[in-house]
Every structure is written in structure tokens, then in C-alpha cells.
Amino acid sequence: MQAKLVGNLVDPPRRVDIDGVEPLIALRSWLIVPERLPRDRSRPMLTGLFGFPWKTRSLEARCTAAGHLNNNFTLPPRIERHHPTVPEPECTCGIYAVRAESLDRIPLSTPVGVPVATGFVELSGRVVAGGTTLRAQRATIIGPLAISAGRSPIIPHLLRRSVHPQRVITINPAYQVRWTARPPGHQWLEWMRHTAHALRNRYEVEVLAEQA
Fold first, then answer.
1. CB neighbours (10 Å) of residue 94?
2. How does pLDDT run across 103-118, given as a tens digit for each residue?
3. CB under 8 Å to 65, separation ≥6 — which residues?
4. What pTM does this model have?
């Protein structure tokens, strides 16, 4: 299944650093999850597809491969940063993205019913390329971000029936999109408006919201 791009994500933003060099701009997807705050409050936050939180616009990669001590694997495996430089070509570590010109080949490997964001990042430090896939040492969200309901349930598609997002509920630690055959509901549109506003304020980038 391919990512559904929302809004004007046709061309990557053009950026030039102080030396007149264009940095590496790439595209990636995140899950949108509720970050828990004091007094039973929460606010939207982006995470990687495996749950690593992006609390701010910029992130530096850390290797989360299972480590070992004295050549004896620990149970449970200990998580450690054991490469001098991340990403390591022989490992799978790093911040993942795809080349910005590969807009028609973006995989959306997300759980069903979880809202997602897709947008542009600026990669820096060490970058390892493998085809259209990039793994970087550091990344900064530069936007725009496009948020949507993500993957819909597969059974209606198999039955050739259309479904639309109706509302979003919070089941810690995740948002869950509820889908029905009715047109998009008011609660869904209001959640999208609120979430776009919250992500815009948090990451200080343009955020585009799917309306249908």
C-alpha cells in the first residue's frame, strides 16, 4: 500500500545553507500519538514507525540493536548504543527516510487505524544510502507535514465498500481512528483541526490536514 499524500507535497522545499550548499532533503512518515502530560492531559506527538519519540524538530540517531556482554547474549537483550558512529552500514540503525524525488514509492508500513504524518526532513551528519532509502545520523523536520487517517480496515476494501474516518479515541499510548461507511464525521474533522494546530505549534512547521 502506498502513502496517501495530502496537500501540496509535490515538491520538496528548497533550502541553502550559509555556504551556499543545498542540504539533503528527504521524505518520511511518522505515527501520531498522544504524549502524556501531568493532570491526565495529553498532546499530539510524532513517533517513528517503531515508536521512537520525536519530542522536538531535531533528532539524533541511536542504535537500538540488541547488545551483548562478553559475547554472551543477555536475557532480555540489553539495548545500547554500541557503534562509534550511527548509522553503521552493516547494521539497520539510523533515521530512515526516502529520497524526496521518490514520492510515488513511499511505503506506508503503519498499523491499521493509527493516524499518520508524512513530510520533509533535512538530513545531516553521516548518511547511508540504499536505493531510494536513506539512513541518517541526524534529521530535522522542516515540513510541510501532511496528516491523515492512515490505513483503513482491509475488509471493506476486499468487499469493495468505502469507509471514512468518523472519530479518534485515545487508548494509551495510542490514538485509534474509528471508520464507518458514513461520510467523515464532525468529530474527525475537529480532531484533525486540533491536531494540525498542535503539531504546527510544537514543531514550528506548516501542517496540512486531510479533510475527507
1. 26
2. 554 455 678 889 999 9
3. 82, 91, 92, 93
4. 0.81
Beta bridge partners of 138: 60, 124
Q: How far apart are CA 200 and CA 40, in angstroms?
A: 22
Residue 52: how many other CB atoms lie within 10 Å: 15
9 residue type, one letter = L
Q: Band of the pLDDT at 199, cuts 50, 70, 90? A: very high
Q: Tally the residues of the chain.
A: 212
Say which residues have a Cβ less than 8 Å from residue 42's Cβ, sequence separation at least 6.
Answer: 34, 35, 36, 170
3-state SS class at 63: coil
Mean residue pLDDT of the chain comes to 80
Helix locations, 112-185, DSSP H: 154-158
- Calculate the alpha carbon distances from 28 to 17, 73, 123, 155 in Å: 22, 33, 11, 27
- Confidence (pLDDT) at 183: 83
**Distance from C-alpha of 26 to C-alpha of 141, rounded to nearest angstrom:** 10
Residue 40: CB atoms within 10 A of its CB come to 6
- Whole-angstrom CA distances from 150 to 45, 51, 180 are 15, 16, 14
CB atoms within 10 A of CB 135: 22
